[in-house]
Amino acid sequence: MQDKVQDDKDWDIIVRPNSSPFQINLKEVWAYKDLITLMVKRDITSVYKQTVLGPLWMFIQPIFITAIYTFTFSASAGLSTDGIPPILFYLIGQTFWVYFADCLNKTSNTFISNAAVFGKVYFPRLVMPFSVIISGLVKLGLQLSLLIIVYIYYFNTTDQIHPQWPYFILLPVFVVIMGFFSLSLGIIFSSFTTKYRDFTFLLGFGVQLLMFLSFVTFPASMFSPAKQQLLLCNPIATLMEAIKFILTGHGTFSINYIITAIIITTLLFFFSVIIFNKTEKSFMDTV
Amino acid sequence: MSKEVIKISDLGKQYRLGQVGTTSISDDLKRWWYKIKGKEDPFLKIGDENDRTKKGNSEYVWALKDISFSVDQGDVLGIVGKNGAGKSTLLKILSRTTSPTVGEYKIKGRVASLLEVGTGFHPDLTGRENVFLNGAILGMTKAEIRKNFDEILDFSGVERYIDTPVKRYSSGMYVRLAFAVAAHLKPEILIVDEVLSVGDQEFQDKCLGKMRSVSESGRTVLFVSHNLLAVKQLCTKGIYLKNGRLLKIGTTKDIVEEYLNDDKQLQSDGTIPHDFYREISTGEAFFRKIILTDLNDNSLTRFAFNQPFKVKLILEVNKQIKDAVINISVATSLGEPIVFSVESKNSKYVSRTFDEGLHEIEAVFDLKFLPNNYKVTIGLHYFSNGVTIDWLENIYQFKVDKISYNTNEDYPWEAMHGYIEPETKWNYKKV
């Protein structure tokens, strides 16, 4: 046994069929950081090639969606926005939700949409979902500028906004948790869809339904405490409410729910990486 | 002793035939159950050899089995074998795009695999952006690519278009740029699959030249190709895979010869054994015998220069075949076909009907082959749709000597600059 261990040390790469699923080689992912930056650059620049308005689309999209939500949910259906000006309410919800949903949809396609590349070259497969999350972050950063403009406008013109300044430091943390949550869900789905395509259908409408359970278009205060408790098990719902609370002073904010969300996300992340590791080794045979 | 850089032991890869991947849900469950009970995976014991010509009994097939060998630093290893012998599976496992079912391997140094050129090229990005992206996918850092960028550009010859999206490129330009990136990788071990089959002659020569310089700089290359000439020119060592098993490892010359001669074990009277390996066959008819004879029906494998010969075939027909043609082609010793012959009358090809039973067919060749070694391929096809009924590639070998057959004029030169000498009429006139 000692000999074998000694022998293994002389080699750089050792491949065996049943290596441990806990072997997460984050060091290897780090060695490919240049690839991650180039992938992010590719994701961002290639989307707006051959468009006239280019990156302006990043702002047109949330403006239109917010307008429609305001018209349907608030003006027509008369749903409460928790005392927040409707436009701001929907813009906050939609900016963060789109970040989450985009990351989820794209990472869940990791294996299938990259099959051609994965089948020909080896690099740590986790590079792909990570680069998707980072591209999503960059896009979110740009869209936040729109949100900030609208936010400052309402802050100056109305007295409905009560920013919870000490908590602002938590906002980046929430964004990271959202990113990890979507990454985890996304790579679990991507691992399953390589073999069973049923999951693509499930995810397709699942994401849409999840939006209605995540307090994007209506506030948690619309529900009875018991129902709220149930709905807040969803980390995205918790974070959405918390973000609104920090920005405007209206919303549900409870440290217990946030800790729960962090625990769920952490567990899910480790679980997803294990599944991903297991899948990446032989997915070329099943995709 | 030279340094071992790749060591492969008992490597195997099993596939399940049918719809999805290597296993099914029920087999997954069974496997899991055995694992809980602490027993060996039951499906590893079964599985047929990977041989398309035989109808197997098992759902599981071993694409590769019991592969063990090692490669030393600086070796250029050629991997030869027919389609389906497991060459690409082996390269895929070694380049880590899929994992083995059993066995293990160890590698020393950085590996770059070139199973395709232009992997990860994005059509909307410019040539420049794609060079960086593709380089990074192949394992280079940004700094390395930047350092080599001018060289890459120079090698590709598409400098003028470098800031144009690659979807506007001609396919030739695309491949050139892609190969240029790959050629400037600096790995210790390079794995190359069939990439030389794309591009024009000039480009192929360039690729071969680049690969030669890679090997001369002391790096290790694993190379798969059906182009035996390229294998012979480039490689120092070879392995021969057949039906997923390692048949032979040795010098390139031995391997190429073994590959060309394998399966061609005719009995001395030219009888083709009943269990003979056939790449393509419908089973309606089989060639049972082939001999080459002189005009007096003496069986020969060695002919004199200028000597006409006959190809004699015995064909066994299992049920009546209508509208079929037999073709006989002659190839060089490296398998490059040079002559193709089908029966014709008044410049029209003739098809025939074969009744059930044995048929003897004779074809007289009156053609001056220049001194060399040749191989004969025979085939039986339907005339109208070209479906192959039986086909035996390079089944018979013969040699043409320099000694003349009917005159004292032997072939006078040392070098051979062709294979066939046609009847030529020469006219001279002073102008």
Describe the secondary structure blueprint for this structure:
The complex is a heterodimer of chains A (287) and B (431).
Chain A: H1 2-9, E1 13-15, H2 26-31, H3 33-47, H4 57-76, H5 86-107, H6 110-113, H7 115-118, H8 127-157, H9 170-195, H10 198-212, H11 225-231, H12 235-248, H13 255-286
Chain B: E1 4-16, H1 25-36, E2 48-49, E3 60-72, E4 76-80, H2 87-94, E5 102-107, E6 111-114, H3 127-137, H4 142-156, H5 171-183, E7 189-193, H6 201-216, E8 220-224, H7 228-234, E9 237-242, E10 245-251, H8 252-261, E11 280-281, E12 285-293, E13 302-305, E14 309-317, E15 321-332, E16 337-342, E17 344-345, E18 348-349, E19 352-354, E20 357-365, E21 368-369, E22 372-382, E23 388-404, E24 420-421
Parallel strand pairs in B: 2-3, 4-8, 4-9, 6-7, 7-8, 13-23
Antiparallel strand pairs in B: 1-3, 1-5, 9-10, 11-23, 12-14, 14-20, 15-16, 15-19, 15-22, 17-18, 21-24, 22-23
Helix pairs in contact in B: 3-4, 3-5, 4-5
Give short descriptive properties of this protein.
heterodimer, A: 287 residues, mainly alpha, globular, B: 431 residues, alpha/beta, Rossmann fold, Coagulation Factor XIII, Chain A, domain 1, 2 domains, 7-stranded mixed β-sheet, 6-stranded mixed β-sheet, 24 strands, 36% strand
Short account of what is shown:
The complex is a heterodimer of chains A (287) and B (431). With 287 residues, chain A is mostly helical.
Description:
The complex is a heterodimer of chains A (287) and B (431). Chain A is mostly helical and 287 residues long. Chain A is built from 13 helices and one strand; from the N terminus they run H-E-H-H-H-H-H-H-H-H-H-H-H-H. The mean pLDDT of chain A is 86. Chain B has 431 residues and is α/β, with parallel strands linked by helices. Chain B has helices spanning 25-36, 87-94, 127-137, 142-156, 171-183, 201-216, 228-234, 252-261, and strands spanning 4-16, 48-49, 60-72, 76-80, 102-107, 111-114, 189-193, 220-224, 237-242, 245-251, 280-281, 285-293, 302-305, 309-317, 321-332, 337-342, 344-345, 348-349, 352-354, 357-365, 368-369, 372-382, 388-404, 420-421. The model of chain B has no long low-confidence stretch (mean pLDDT 83). At the A-B interface, strand 1, helix 3, helix 7 and helix 13 of A face strand 5 and helix 3 of B. Strand 1 (13-15) of chain A pairs antiparallel with strand 5 of chain B, so a sheet runs across the interface.
